[in-house]
Design brief:
Elements (H helix, E strand, L loop, with lengths): L3 E7 L5 H9 L3 E8 L3 E3 L4 E3 L2 H8 L4 E3 L7 H10 L3 E5 L7 H4 L5 E6 L11 H7 L4 E8 L9 E8 L6 H24 L33 H10 L6 E5 L2 E10 L10 E4 L2 E5 L4 E9 L5 E2 H11 L7
Parallel strand pairs: 1-2, 1-6, 2-5, 6-7
Antiparallel strand pairs: 3-4, 7-8, 8-9, 10-11, 11-14, 12-13, 13-14, 14-15
Helix pairs in contact: 1-6, 5-7
């Protein structure tokens, strides 16, 4: 049976189902896995391997870790020796330069978690939710030097539910990526791989998110905007506001139509914490006060009403 020689590039747990598929595919000879170096983590700041490397160690797969793939001469020599048919990249966290892109016979292919050319960049999952999209997906594109701009060779679509969070969609796309990869490999093996150019007039970008992106602006935002912000940024970087200048983490909200509060107005009613936005009133169902554990608003209101005579939110 003919086997294709492959090299895999990946780092976080998101990469592991696709790595597992390559490692166990009967017609793939996985020659090498490349990942980022170990990093300090946890309270003790002990060195910790990326999940992809942990998988390789557990399954006796040859791996290599590097800080800069394009300047690592030892690795470039190793890639020449491997002489792979194709490279597969998924959440590797480094750009591949020409020296690497030109090595494999069939090319380098990248798995991206959006329907390209929508949301090129680092945070496509969160931006799909921030914008209230009802559909996203997985794209496999043949890599070029321009970020996420290569021709599409495979695509699969997923519907997004109204309340789906960033963490939930992350998990679904993690496994959708491996299923799409399986179809891609079948196409290569059957010599049926096709491609099409991305429509550059429809390109949008999804830059890396910052913690500041989680600040909820009740005075200038409507319910749908805040709802999408809360679910998109859950679990990271999370959403927050300031209640009487104290940071308040907002974990879960819902629409509360009967209070009629003005934008930014705060009220405790029926043991619920309510805040007005530009088109309705929002209930802060699950919150976390500074120095406290996360809890329902109904469990937090006694402490709040004993501490403050009135509320200012910002």
């Amino acid at each position: 049976m003919k086997k294709l020689k492959a090299v895999f590039f990946g780092t976080p747990d998101f990469s592991c189902p696709s790595l597992e598929l390559l490692a166990n595919h009967p017609q793939i000879d996985l020659k090498l896995v490349i990942s980022m170096p170990d990093r300090p983590a946890g309270r003790g700041q002990k060195l910790q391997s990326p999940p992809v490397i942990t998988y390789c160690k557990d399954n006796k797969i040859k791996f290599y870790q590097t800080e800069n793939i394009n300047k690592d001469e030892e690795l470039l020599k190793l890639l020449d020796e491997v002489d792979a048919d194709f490279y597969l990249v998924l959440a590797f966290a480094q750009f591949l330069g020409s020296k690497v892109l030109n090595k494999p016979k069939l090319g380098c292919f990248n798995i991206h978690t959006s329907l390209l050319p929508k949301y090129r960049g680092a945070a496509p999952i969160q931006y799909a939710l921030l914008n209230g999209d009802t559909q996203t997906g997985v794209s496999i594109q043949k890599m070029v030097k321009k970020m996420d701009a290569g021709d599409i060779v495979k695509e699969s679509k997923l519907n997004i539910s109204f309340d789906e969070t960033g963490g939930q969609l992350y998990t679904r796309l993690k496994f959708a990526a491996s299923l799409t990869l399986n179809d891609f490999i079948t196409d290569i093996l059957n010599d049926e791989l096709t491609s099409y150019e991305q429509d550059e007039s429809k390109v949008s970008f999804a830059p890396t998110l910052k913690k500041e992106d989680g600040h909820i602006k009740f005075l200038e935002s409507d319910f749908n905007t805040i709802h999408n912000q809360v679910r998109a940024l859950k679990p990271w970087p999370g959403t927050y506001c300031f209640l009487n200048e104290k940071r308040l983490k907002v974990i879960e909200i819902s629409k509360y139509d009967n209070a009629g509060l003005k934008p930014g107005e705060v009220k405790v009613a029926d043991n619920k914490i309510l805040v007005g936005c530009t088109d309705s009133t929002i209930r802060l169902n699950m919150i976390q006060l500074e120095g406290k554990k996360a809890c329902r608003d109904t469990d937090a209101v006694n402490g709040l009403t004993n501490k403050f005579d009135s509320f200012i939110i910002s």
